[in-house]
Amino acid sequence: MDVPFTRAGVAGLGLIGGSLALALRQAGLSVTGYDIDTATVRAANTADIAASTTPDALFDTDILFIALYPDATIDFVRTHAARIKQGGLVVDCCGIKTRVVEALTTVAAENGFTFIGGHPMAGSEFGGFGAARADLFAGASFLLTPPDPQMPQLAPLETLLRRIGCVPNVTDPAHHDRMIAFTSQLPHALACAYVLSSSCPGHAGFSAGSYRDVSRVAHINPTLWAELFLENRDAFCAEMDEMIDHLQTLRNAAAADNRKSLEDLLKKARKRKELDNLQQR
Predict the structure, then answer these.
(1) Which residue(s) pair with 51 in the sheet?
(2) Where is the Prephenate/arogenate dehydrogenase domain positioned along the sequence (predicted)?
(3) What does the alpha-carbon distance between residue 60 and residue 117 come to, in Å, rounded to a whole number?
(4) Could you tell me the mean pLDDT of each successive run of 10 residues in the chain, 281 residues long?
(5) Measured distance CA(99)–CA(228) in Å, rounded
(6) Within 10 A of 6 (CB to CB), how many other CB atoms are there?
(7) What structural domains and CATH numbers belong to the chain?
(8) What is the rounded CA–CA span in Å between residue 158 and residue 160?
Protein backbone atom coordinates (compact mmCIF):
# COMPACT_ATOMS: atom_id res chain seq x y z
CA MET A 1 0.00 0.00 0.00
CA ASP A 2 1.51 3.32 -1.07
CA VAL A 3 1.86 5.97 1.63
CA PRO A 4 0.24 9.21 0.37
CA PHE A 5 2.40 11.46 2.58
CA THR A 6 6.16 11.60 3.08
CA ARG A 7 6.56 13.97 6.07
CA ALA A 8 4.40 13.92 9.16
CA GLY A 9 4.39 16.05 12.28
CA VAL A 10 2.99 15.17 15.69
CA ALA A 11 2.32 17.78 18.36
CA GLY A 12 2.16 16.14 21.77
CA LEU A 13 4.15 12.94 22.32
CA GLY A 14 2.19 11.23 25.08
CA LEU A 15 0.56 7.83 24.69
CA ILE A 16 -1.50 8.70 21.60
CA GLY A 17 0.86 11.16 19.93
CA GLY A 18 3.91 9.05 20.73
CA SER A 19 2.25 5.93 19.35
CA LEU A 20 1.23 7.81 16.21
CA ALA A 21 4.78 9.04 15.73
CA LEU A 22 6.18 5.51 16.13
CA ALA A 23 3.57 4.01 13.80
CA LEU A 24 4.12 6.67 11.14
CA ARG A 25 7.87 6.20 11.35
CA GLN A 26 7.43 2.44 11.00
CA ALA A 27 5.25 3.11 7.93
CA GLY A 28 8.19 4.84 6.28
CA LEU A 29 7.38 8.50 6.85
CA SER A 30 9.83 11.10 8.04
CA VAL A 31 8.38 12.12 11.42
CA THR A 32 8.87 15.34 13.35
CA GLY A 33 7.61 15.56 16.92
CA TYR A 34 6.98 18.33 19.43
CA ASP A 35 6.51 18.19 23.17
CA ILE A 36 7.18 20.65 25.97
CA ASP A 37 8.73 17.94 28.17
CA THR A 38 12.47 17.56 27.66
CA ALA A 39 12.58 13.95 28.89
CA THR A 40 9.86 13.02 26.41
CA VAL A 41 11.76 14.70 23.59
CA ARG A 42 14.94 12.80 24.49
CA ALA A 43 13.07 9.50 24.51
CA ALA A 44 11.44 10.27 21.16
CA ASN A 45 14.77 11.17 19.57
CA THR A 46 16.16 7.85 20.77
CA ALA A 47 13.27 6.17 18.94
CA ASP A 48 14.23 7.89 15.64
CA ILE A 49 11.62 10.64 15.94
CA ALA A 50 13.07 14.09 15.18
CA ALA A 51 11.56 15.70 18.27
CA SER A 52 12.01 19.13 19.81
CA THR A 53 10.64 21.32 22.59
CA THR A 54 9.85 23.95 19.96
CA PRO A 55 7.23 23.35 17.24
CA ASP A 56 9.01 25.08 14.36
CA ALA A 57 9.76 21.95 12.30
CA LEU A 58 6.12 20.81 12.38
CA PHE A 59 4.94 23.47 9.99
CA ASP A 60 6.67 22.17 6.87
CA THR A 61 5.13 18.69 7.06
CA ASP A 62 2.51 17.26 4.69
CA ILE A 63 0.24 16.13 7.52
CA LEU A 64 0.17 17.34 11.10
CA PHE A 65 -1.46 15.38 13.92
CA ILE A 66 -2.35 17.31 17.06
CA ALA A 67 -2.40 15.01 20.10
CA LEU A 68 -3.14 17.55 22.84
CA TYR A 69 -6.06 18.18 25.18
CA PRO A 70 -9.08 19.81 23.48
CA ASP A 71 -8.50 23.37 24.71
CA ALA A 72 -4.78 23.09 24.05
CA THR A 73 -5.46 21.75 20.54
CA ILE A 74 -7.61 24.75 19.66
CA ASP A 75 -5.08 27.17 21.15
CA PHE A 76 -2.15 25.51 19.37
CA VAL A 77 -3.74 25.60 15.93
CA ARG A 78 -5.02 29.15 16.34
CA THR A 79 -1.63 30.37 17.57
CA HIS A 80 0.33 28.76 14.73
CA ALA A 81 -2.27 28.83 11.92
CA ALA A 82 -0.32 31.29 9.80
CA ARG A 83 2.76 29.03 9.94
CA ILE A 84 1.07 25.76 8.95
CA LYS A 85 1.97 24.61 5.44
CA GLN A 86 -0.33 25.93 2.71
CA GLY A 87 -2.35 23.03 1.36
CA GLY A 88 -1.32 20.86 4.29
CA LEU A 89 -3.61 18.64 6.33
CA VAL A 90 -4.16 18.96 10.09
CA VAL A 91 -5.86 16.18 12.07
CA ASP A 92 -6.63 16.34 15.77
CA CYS A 93 -6.93 13.37 18.14
CA CYS A 94 -9.31 14.77 20.76
CA GLY A 95 -11.94 12.68 22.51
CA ILE A 96 -14.63 15.29 21.81
CA LYS A 97 -15.36 16.70 18.41
CA THR A 98 -18.11 19.32 18.18
CA ARG A 99 -16.30 22.23 19.80
CA VAL A 100 -12.92 21.38 18.25
CA VAL A 101 -14.31 20.98 14.73
CA GLU A 102 -16.38 24.16 14.94
CA ALA A 103 -13.36 26.16 16.09
CA LEU A 104 -10.73 24.81 13.72
CA THR A 105 -12.57 24.29 10.43
CA THR A 106 -12.91 28.05 10.09
CA VAL A 107 -9.30 28.68 11.14
CA ALA A 108 -8.09 26.22 8.50
CA ALA A 109 -10.16 27.81 5.73
CA GLU A 110 -8.85 31.26 6.62
CA ASN A 111 -5.22 30.11 6.55
CA GLY A 112 -5.03 27.85 3.51
CA PHE A 113 -4.84 24.38 5.05
CA THR A 114 -7.37 21.60 5.64
CA PHE A 115 -8.60 20.44 9.03
CA ILE A 116 -10.23 17.06 9.61
CA GLY A 117 -11.39 16.05 13.07
CA GLY A 118 -10.06 12.71 14.25
CA HIS A 119 -10.27 10.39 17.25
CA PRO A 120 -8.27 7.14 17.43
CA MET A 121 -10.23 4.58 19.45
CA ALA A 122 -7.21 3.11 21.14
CA GLY A 123 -5.48 3.74 24.41
CA SER A 124 -4.27 2.40 27.71
CA GLU A 125 -4.69 3.17 31.39
CA PHE A 126 -1.03 4.24 31.25
CA GLY A 127 0.20 7.46 29.67
CA GLY A 128 3.31 9.16 28.39
CA PHE A 129 5.80 8.34 25.67
CA GLY A 130 7.09 5.46 27.77
CA ALA A 131 3.77 3.68 27.22
CA ALA A 132 3.63 4.48 23.49
CA ARG A 133 3.99 1.69 20.97
CA ALA A 134 3.79 1.46 17.19
CA ASP A 135 1.10 -1.24 17.22
CA LEU A 136 -1.30 0.60 19.55
CA PHE A 137 -3.69 1.27 16.65
CA ALA A 138 -3.66 -2.21 15.12
CA GLY A 139 -7.28 -3.00 14.29
CA ALA A 140 -8.53 0.14 16.06
CA SER A 141 -11.23 2.39 14.68
CA PHE A 142 -10.02 5.89 13.82
CA LEU A 143 -13.08 8.14 13.78
CA LEU A 144 -13.01 11.01 11.29
CA THR A 145 -15.33 14.02 11.14
CA PRO A 146 -14.50 15.81 7.87
CA PRO A 147 -16.38 19.03 7.06
CA ASP A 148 -17.35 17.34 3.76
CA PRO A 149 -17.35 13.51 3.47
CA GLN A 150 -16.59 13.90 -0.26
CA MET A 151 -13.57 16.17 0.18
CA PRO A 152 -10.51 14.95 -1.78
CA GLN A 153 -8.20 15.12 1.24
CA LEU A 154 -10.14 12.37 3.02
CA ALA A 155 -9.11 9.41 0.85
CA PRO A 156 -5.33 9.92 1.28
CA LEU A 157 -5.82 10.25 5.04
CA GLU A 158 -7.81 7.02 5.15
CA THR A 159 -5.05 5.30 3.17
CA LEU A 160 -2.43 6.46 5.65
CA LEU A 161 -4.50 5.38 8.63
CA ARG A 162 -4.96 1.91 7.15
CA ARG A 163 -1.21 1.76 6.60
CA ILE A 164 -0.62 2.12 10.35
CA GLY A 165 -3.26 -0.47 11.17
CA CYS A 166 -6.34 1.66 11.80
CA VAL A 167 -9.86 1.20 10.48
CA PRO A 168 -11.10 4.66 9.35
CA ASN A 169 -14.75 5.43 10.10
CA VAL A 170 -16.44 8.64 9.01
CA THR A 171 -19.11 10.22 11.20
CA ASP A 172 -20.28 13.70 12.17
CA PRO A 173 -19.19 15.59 15.30
CA ALA A 174 -22.56 15.51 17.08
CA HIS A 175 -23.05 11.75 16.61
CA HIS A 176 -19.43 11.16 17.64
CA ASP A 177 -19.93 13.02 20.91
CA ARG A 178 -23.19 11.24 21.72
CA MET A 179 -21.68 7.80 21.19
CA ILE A 180 -18.40 8.60 22.96
CA ALA A 181 -20.37 9.70 26.03
CA PHE A 182 -21.66 6.11 26.18
CA THR A 183 -18.67 4.06 24.99
CA SER A 184 -15.86 5.98 26.68
CA GLN A 185 -16.85 8.69 29.12
CA LEU A 186 -19.52 6.74 31.01
CA PRO A 187 -17.23 3.69 31.61
CA HIS A 188 -14.52 5.97 33.00
CA ALA A 189 -17.01 7.65 35.32
CA LEU A 190 -18.38 4.27 36.37
CA ALA A 191 -14.90 2.93 37.15
CA CYS A 192 -14.13 5.98 39.27
CA ALA A 193 -17.42 5.77 41.16
CA TYR A 194 -16.82 2.05 41.71
CA VAL A 195 -13.38 2.41 43.33
CA LEU A 196 -14.64 5.27 45.51
CA SER A 197 -16.70 2.69 47.41
CA SER A 198 -15.77 2.39 51.07
CA SER A 199 -15.33 -1.35 50.41
CA CYS A 200 -12.56 -0.83 47.85
CA PRO A 201 -9.57 -0.65 50.24
CA GLY A 202 -10.41 -4.14 51.54
CA HIS A 203 -10.94 -5.89 48.21
CA ALA A 204 -7.66 -7.88 48.20
CA GLY A 205 -8.36 -11.58 48.44
CA PHE A 206 -12.00 -11.07 47.52
CA SER A 207 -11.60 -9.84 43.96
CA ALA A 208 -10.76 -11.36 40.60
CA GLY A 209 -11.68 -10.62 37.00
CA SER A 210 -14.85 -8.63 37.68
CA TYR A 211 -13.08 -6.15 39.94
CA ARG A 212 -10.16 -5.85 37.54
CA ASP A 213 -12.36 -5.32 34.47
CA VAL A 214 -14.63 -2.69 36.04
CA SER A 215 -11.91 -0.77 37.86
CA ARG A 216 -9.16 -0.76 35.20
CA VAL A 217 -9.81 2.66 33.67
CA ALA A 218 -10.08 4.37 37.05
CA HIS A 219 -6.30 4.76 36.61
CA ILE A 220 -7.24 8.06 35.03
CA ASN A 221 -5.71 11.39 34.01
CA PRO A 222 -7.92 13.73 36.09
CA THR A 223 -7.08 16.91 34.17
CA LEU A 224 -7.82 15.41 30.76
CA TRP A 225 -10.98 13.56 31.73
CA ALA A 226 -12.47 16.47 33.64
CA GLU A 227 -12.04 18.53 30.47
CA LEU A 228 -13.61 15.82 28.32
CA PHE A 229 -16.60 15.41 30.65
CA LEU A 230 -17.21 19.16 30.75
CA GLU A 231 -16.78 19.73 27.02
CA ASN A 232 -19.36 17.01 26.34
CA ARG A 233 -21.45 17.55 29.46
CA ASP A 234 -24.93 17.38 27.86
CA ALA A 235 -24.40 13.96 26.30
CA PHE A 236 -22.32 12.78 29.27
CA CYS A 237 -24.96 13.77 31.83
CA ALA A 238 -27.71 12.16 29.75
CA GLU A 239 -25.81 8.86 29.78
CA MET A 240 -25.13 9.22 33.50
CA ASP A 241 -28.84 9.84 34.19
CA GLU A 242 -29.84 6.73 32.26
CA MET A 243 -27.23 4.61 34.07
CA ILE A 244 -28.42 5.91 37.44
CA ASP A 245 -32.01 5.02 36.48
CA HIS A 246 -30.98 1.46 35.61
CA LEU A 247 -29.00 1.07 38.85
CA GLN A 248 -31.92 2.45 40.83
CA THR A 249 -34.29 -0.02 39.20
CA LEU A 250 -32.00 -2.93 40.07
CA ARG A 251 -31.55 -1.63 43.60
CA ASN A 252 -35.30 -1.20 44.11
CA ALA A 253 -36.03 -4.73 42.92
CA ALA A 254 -33.45 -6.14 45.34
CA ALA A 255 -34.70 -3.98 48.23
CA ALA A 256 -38.26 -5.18 47.58
CA ASP A 257 -37.12 -8.83 47.52
CA ASN A 258 -38.63 -9.03 44.03
CA ARG A 259 -36.88 -11.99 42.48
CA LYS A 260 -38.93 -11.94 39.27
CA SER A 261 -38.16 -8.30 38.56
CA LEU A 262 -34.46 -8.88 39.17
CA GLU A 263 -34.38 -11.91 36.90
CA ASP A 264 -36.28 -10.07 34.19
CA LEU A 265 -33.84 -7.15 34.33
CA LEU A 266 -30.81 -9.42 34.24
CA LYS A 267 -32.25 -11.49 31.37
CA LYS A 268 -32.88 -8.29 29.40
CA ALA A 269 -29.27 -7.20 29.96
CA ARG A 270 -27.92 -10.62 28.99
CA LYS A 271 -29.94 -10.65 25.76
CA ARG A 272 -28.69 -7.17 24.93
CA LYS A 273 -25.09 -8.27 25.44
CA GLU A 274 -25.56 -11.48 23.44
CA LEU A 275 -26.97 -9.46 20.55
CA ASP A 276 -24.04 -7.05 20.83
CA ASN A 277 -21.60 -9.98 20.68
CA LEU A 278 -23.27 -11.30 17.53
CA GLN A 279 -23.12 -7.88 15.86
CA GLN A 280 -19.40 -7.59 16.64
CA ARG A 281 -18.50 -10.81 14.81
Answers:
(1) 33
(2) 6-281
(3) 20
(4) 83 96 96 97 95 95 96 97 96 96 96 97 84 93 95 95 96 97 96 96 93 92 94 96 97 97 96 88 70
(5) 11
(6) 11
(7) 7-171 (3.40.50.720), 176-280 (1.10.3660.10)
(8) 5
